[in-house]
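[job 4471] stage=fold_predict status=RUNNING
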Amino acid sequence: MAANVLPPRLKKTDSLKLDKSKSSLEILMQMGFTKQRSEKAIAATGDRGVQLASDWLLSHVNDPNLDSNEPRQYMLYLCPVGPLQKQLTVFFEKSLTICGWNGAHSYFPHITLTPFFTVEDSKVSVLKHALNKAESVLKQAPGSLQLDFFSQNNFIGLFVPDTYFRYLSEVVSQFSAELKKAGISMETHKKQLHITLAYQYAASQNDTLNKLAKEIDLGAPCQWDLRIYSRDPRFAKHEVRKVIKAYKPGLIDELELIDGDFILVDPQEYAQSKDQWYQGTSWLTGTSGMFPGPYTVRTAETWTWTLHGSLPLTDANAAIAVEANGHDLYDNLWRDHRDGLYAKVVKKNSGPEKKKEPRKLYVMRHGERIDFIFGRDWCEKCFDASGNYKRIDLNMPKTILKRNNFLDNVKDAPLTTIGQMQTLITGEFLQENGTVINHVYVSPAFRCVQTATGILKGLGVSLPLHIEPGLFEWMGWYQLGLPKWFTPQELQQHGFNVDTSYVPYISGPKLDYDETIELYYKRSGEIAKKILKKHELDGGNVLIVGHAGTLDVCTRHVLGKSPRSSSEFHDICPKVPYCGMCVCQEDMHSKKWSLQQDFVPPLTHGQNKLNTSGIIQLLKS
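[job 4471] inference complete, writing structure tokens
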């Protein structure tokens, strides 16, 4: 066969097209993002594609509210497009320049059709479906919409006539009916429909604003679009400021100002500040800090809103669709600028002058466990026949989570009070030394779940735990049966931040009771490599919380080494202290991993001997 000649394919298949049909949610979860975070990103970006959603997630990696479940607020707007919209924009600009800020400048020109309503992130797709269902009604617009000018003290606006009001009410009613089928409640607008030109302004500005408003040609051609927008409810009453000059933080409490970003500020900040430095939150990253006010300028809050869908009202007598394109500044911003803005933030956060950091794998043992301190019979001492717990030593937890059978605590013991302190102290050290953790995988043992939670608390971050039974310790120690662990759902109900959508690589029932030490190394090593492979694209450091043997069995295979013998393994385990940690680092070029020097100091404390007879008996002797 001749070289460099492409041979014809005799057998062709379209099976790969199935992957292209996956939803954004499925693809994001396949990339390693949690279901909750994926849905949040899709909602925040208007389901405009996986790339934008993943960029949003990466830019919000340090957002303390990334895992909050507060739903976004949505609204239905009728927006002008074309020559009339252009005139309205000119009026807004002139009124701002000549008369200063008034309430209307917080929004772009629009007609509000509904009050704000909330939609869970998991139901965002319903909005586009409902909008598409209303398309047939949108094609029955009763001619062109002619607005009526209206003015009174402290208000200037353009009102919708009654004939069009009834038509728009029908559009909203059909949209609302579709939402109701999905359990989404939405009220109709009670006030007269209108475009607000100016309000909340000084009485002395009334004549000037009226004069400017009357320059608008209300007969100018206009296409009207029905649009769905959303906003973050946490900043509903905040002022929005656009960054006009970039700023690199000089102190730890300062906020980086990124060109193109918007800063959300509580209006009370202006009264409290004496130096023009204000506390604000970055719209692009979700992080907060102090920023220099003069480097920003107030702007409309609608620049921070998300567009979820848009359909035109069709008027057979209006032929301005082509002419209208390009006049809607807000929509153009989304199409031409906003899509790349999150990616810009991700790139900027890494810093053009900084090298990309290599990935790290942190593997650690859990904290001090109660049964190793008070003996295997500790449950018999602390629980009565009815399963009521009584703390008999201050190193025992104040409370213990309820189980169906309190004896389940025997095989799945919690941490001691000291053990919980160990996790916090270790986490705080990691935080002080700038350690960054992006993904957390945990053995299902409750002591490991508690340890991971304490570490993250000490670090000051909120990350979901991925419960992985494949990280449980050697099965040779459990010939009489596995512990009865809390399920991810039960842990979540008890207040632990657990990703209940995570599908483990190995489920509990799949663990092999006949497992040899060699197979234990193989099982743990493969799990570790799969976890690292899963996060190869999105990057970030991984924390694995397991048992004494986990530090060796999870890193041995990653480092390219063969399993240790049984005697070597049993010799290593007793030497690993509570909250002991090791770190592996990936070479960015060869992609090989190497064990790093210890950077976490040992956590040493003396033994406080158990005195069963009590202090009084000791002193009486």
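[job 4471] summary: The first helix runs from residue 17 to 20.
[job 4471] exit 0
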